[in-house]
């Protein structure tokens, strides 16, 4: 690949400053695209929730321990991760170092704005009791804390709010939160940061839920989601494209008008996980409907979904699932996956109307609750006294922690690499010239609905080094 002097110069200048930013991603039709190069971006991700759902309090959250972040970023680079999702954060804490580390590692972030702490989420059974200024101090606080970091891919307004336990009107409240967040961002953030919703895989209302949020309302254009995440655990063990129900999902979302991706995947009913679904998810068929996905989850917790085990602050073990996933990622044709496609970006939103809700099991009207007046004041003038983060300089190097593989053998020389230029991290394709990483974690159990029975051949895409070099060439 040929690298121009100009490009090197830019990279060097940026490095001399502080942390070098990845170009922000933006939504174009049903794809995420790089705002500078306009190349398509697909999520090769992991859910990051070290310590589990309760690892957030007023003093710490998953992005406050920079030693842990650097350790995880290095291991994520090695794995091939380009995006992490983080569920529970505390807006008043300082996240500069961790976010800068992930940015330098070439890793984007999708952030849930809700938290399990008091006033941190909507009550799905009675949302009107929590749709108030106290709740928006959390929501807008997260936007304030993260709005200046270019590697923030987007915010989730809600995770699995709509399920069997939610009230009939819950979708209107979630759509109102999306509206308020997008109005806040338009008024108070330096760029348009996408806002989405992450759904449980409850098959009878899944497509209705997507339609409810992605349709266009002329009287409230900002209430439309920018992307849709689906928590899907239907591919277990050596399933196939059809036995897992991925074929049905692909058909269901082929006509989506926003980017759709798996916000959690990785069924653990059969262990060790071999992640054969990776080849289907990034294969020719599914990439017309989906923009990749995030594996649930980075660290081993009591629910047994981890890729790595944090033994103690100085020792980490990469589990067999980590190796299995890395092998699958290394097979991907990154060049094809990240190629822009005009028919994907030219899709137009449908209009909200009762006819687009077909199950009879989901709200089919769009009268949204009015924004509470104090929340309108926050939107107008910004949330008072909210800390805002910014990048700091970080440098690369071999991580100090001891790393063992699943056989107990020590892995030496695991390095956190500062990527120069505007590169997202990619799977290594087993090339010595490039390292990749992994990281993640989150909580939340998926409700799997499409059950697999037959063992027909999965749809398999092959790729490898050629694709990787094409991507690097296009970035440089
Ligand atoms: C939650 O919000 C209510 C209503 O504003 C407030 O009275 C209460 O102190 C808040 N709780 C916490 C823990 O912040
Ligand atoms: C998707 O759109 C095509 C063309 O408009 C249509 O034929 C097809 O039925 C749609 N599929 C779904 C699942 O709505
Ligand atoms: C572009 O996307 C469309 C719609 O998703 C798909 O039918 C087509 O095969 C894609 N073209 C290429 C070259 O990938
Ligand atoms: C770390 O934990 C893993 C998984 O429980 C275990 O197999 C391994 O022996 C532990 N390693 C150390 C160094 O304690
Ligand atoms: C906005 O439009 C939607 C659907 O088009 C409708 O249900 C809703 O009542 C309208 N809201 C207002 C305030 O007019
Ligand atoms: C690269 O390939 C070699 C030989 O096939 C294998 O031993 C090694 O584990 C691979 N490395 C990675 C990172 O996949």
Automatic annotation (TrEMBL):
SUPFAM superfamilies according to UniProt: (Trans)glycosidases
GO CC terms in record: plasma membrane; side of membrane
Top EC category: transferase
InterPro entries xref list: GH, Glucanosyltransferase
Membrane topology field: Lipid-anchor; GPI-anchor
Name recorded for this polypeptide: 1,3-beta-glucanosyltransferase
Keyword terms, alphabetized: Glycoprotein, GPI-anchor, Lipoprotein, Membrane, Signal, Transferase
Role summary: Splits internally a 1,3-beta-glucan molecule and transfers the newly generated reducing end (the donor) to the non-reducing end of another 1,3-beta-glucan molecule (the acceptor) forming a 1,3-beta linkage, resulting in the elongation of 1,3-beta-glucan chains in the cell wall. Involved in cell wall morphogenesis.
Entry EC number(s): 2.4.1.-
Cited Pfam families: Glyco_hydro_72 (PF03198)
GO BP of this protein: fungal-type cell wall (1->3)-beta-D-glucan biosynthetic process; fungal-type cell wall organization
Organism: Penicillium cinerascens
């Amino acid at each position: 690949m040929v690298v121009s002097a100009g490009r090197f110069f830019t990279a060097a200048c940026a490095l001399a400053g502080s942390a070098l930013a990845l170009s922000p991603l933006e939504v174009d039709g049903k794809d995420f695209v790089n705002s500078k190069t306009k190349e398509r971006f697909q999520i090769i991700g992991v859910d990051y929730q070290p310590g589990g759902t309760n690892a957030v309090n007023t003093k710490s959250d998953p992005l406050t321990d920079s030693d842990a972040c650097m350790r995880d970023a290095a291991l994520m680079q090695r794995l091939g991760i380009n995006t992490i999702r983080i569920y529970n954060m505390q807006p008043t804490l300082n996240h500069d170092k961790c976010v800068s580390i992930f940015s330098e590692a070439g890793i984007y972030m999708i952030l849930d704005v809700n938290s399990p702490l008091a006033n941190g989420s909507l009550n799905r059974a009675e949302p009107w009791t929590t749709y108030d200024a106290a709740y928006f101090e959390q929501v807008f606080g997260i936007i304030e804390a993260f709005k200046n970091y270019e590697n923030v891919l987007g915010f989730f307004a809600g995770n699995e709010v709509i399920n069997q336990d939610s009230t009939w009107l819950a979708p209107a409240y979630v759509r109102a939160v999306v509206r308020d967040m997008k109005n806040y961002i338009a008024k108070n953030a330096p760029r348009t940061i996408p806002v989405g919703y992450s759904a449980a895989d409850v098959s009878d209302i899944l497509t209705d839920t997507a339609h409810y949020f992605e349709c266009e309302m002329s009287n409230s254009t900002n209430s439309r989601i920018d992307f849709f995440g689906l928590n899907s655990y239907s591919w277990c063990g050596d399933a196939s494209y059809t036995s897992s129900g991925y074929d049905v999902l692909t058909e269901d979302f082929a006509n989506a008008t926003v980017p759709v991706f798996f916000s959690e995947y990785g069924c653990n009913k059969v262990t060790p996980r071999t992640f054969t679904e990776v080849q289907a998810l990034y294969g020719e068929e599914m990439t017309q409907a989906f923009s990749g996905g995030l594996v649930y989850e980075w660290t081993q917790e009591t629910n047994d979904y981890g890729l790595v085990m944090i033994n103690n602050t100085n020792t980490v073990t990469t589990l067999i699932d980590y190796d299995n996933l890395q092998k699958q990622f290394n097979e991907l044709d990154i060049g094809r996956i990240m190629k822009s496609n005009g028919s994907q970006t030219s899709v137009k939103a449908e209009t909200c109307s009762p006819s687009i809700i077909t199950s009879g099991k989901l709200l089919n009207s769009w009268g949204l609750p009015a924004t509470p007046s104090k929340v309108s004041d926050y939107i107008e003038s910004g949330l008072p006294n909210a800390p805002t983060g910014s990048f700091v300089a970080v440098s690369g190097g071999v991580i100090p922690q001891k790393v063992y593989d699943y056989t107990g053998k020590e892995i030496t020389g695991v390095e956190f690499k500062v990527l120069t230029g505007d590169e997202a991290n990619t799977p290594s394709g087993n090339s010595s010239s490039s390292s990749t990483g992994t990281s993640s974690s989150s909580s939340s159990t998926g409700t799997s609905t499409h059950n697999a029975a037959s063992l027909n051949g999965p749809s398999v895409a092959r790729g490898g080094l050629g694709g990787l070099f094409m991507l690097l060439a296009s970035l440089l």
